[in-house]
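S.,

Sequence below, as promised.
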Amino acid sequence: MQSVTYFYREPRKTGVSIEGIFGLVKSCLQNRLKIKEFDCDPKLSRLQNTRRAGKSSDKINHITGDVNFLALGLKGNNILTIHDFGFYENPVHSKMVKMMYHLFWFYFPLKKIDIVTVVSLFTKEKLIRYFQFPEERIRVIPDPVKPVFQRAERKKRSDKPVVLMLGTGKHKNLDNLIKAAQGRNFHIDIVGWPAPDELEKLRKYSISHSIYNGLSDEQVFERYVACDVLFMASLYEGFGMPIIEAQAVGRPVITGNIGAMKEVGEGSAILVDPLDVASIRDVINSLLNNQQLYDDTVALGYKNAAKYDFKKIAEQYLEVYKELDAKNGK
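The prediction came back faster than expected:
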């Protein structure tokens, strides 16, 4: 049986999207593939973890994300999954930090990589632009929607409709959602940790809201079920998994008309300029007051989410492993 080793960052209790993705892939392929797993040890340095990774090298090694530097120690045929370039592009980092990240997360590791998988065409274009990685060695494999996010139709909206926002950080665009909510009769559910200035704005403008954090997938599903609309018109996303999750549950999505969000949501979500507060407000009002638009957007979302079924995504990864296995056999 073909063997592949998955290389993960250090274990964590929250923010485990990468582990969840490849846990699903493993569950689908476990009877067709021997998958071993390596976790970085948070007590060790990156150099020590790289040496440990080298000792765990398989014929096919798959770095699942966020620990690209491990490639420097690997033998065999290597796959790297890149989810986004958010940290690399963040303007707050000093030139020295960006240079170190450039060299040891991308430039040198990519020299040891046979195939890169990216979650979107948006990320693929950046990989080629920033690092001139050969296009013929890039595969676009989107993130899968977890089976916990099942259809749960919203039979009746509440008197105060709920707009859900998953994730915080300035790029998530809570500031403009707050501006759009002023004077409007809807409630904002926020999953994450809003910044102090965002909390102050919520209080200052008397915005009805609730804040949740540290949620399990099952608890996130409950937030989808309880909401009327998902807002994900971020300033930047490498993919935008909540778009697909909300659509799978049966909630209309408002997302940005830029980058990966447009790629994932176009034709099934309502796209807005993330910087246009008036447009955000108008789209929310339209969805909440036009039942036909609401229902049509939900129906389109179900169709879009079906493309991201985890079994289909697992098959795409299996094809990459077969491709490298064939290379080994030559």
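The mean pLDDT is 94.

Coffee later?
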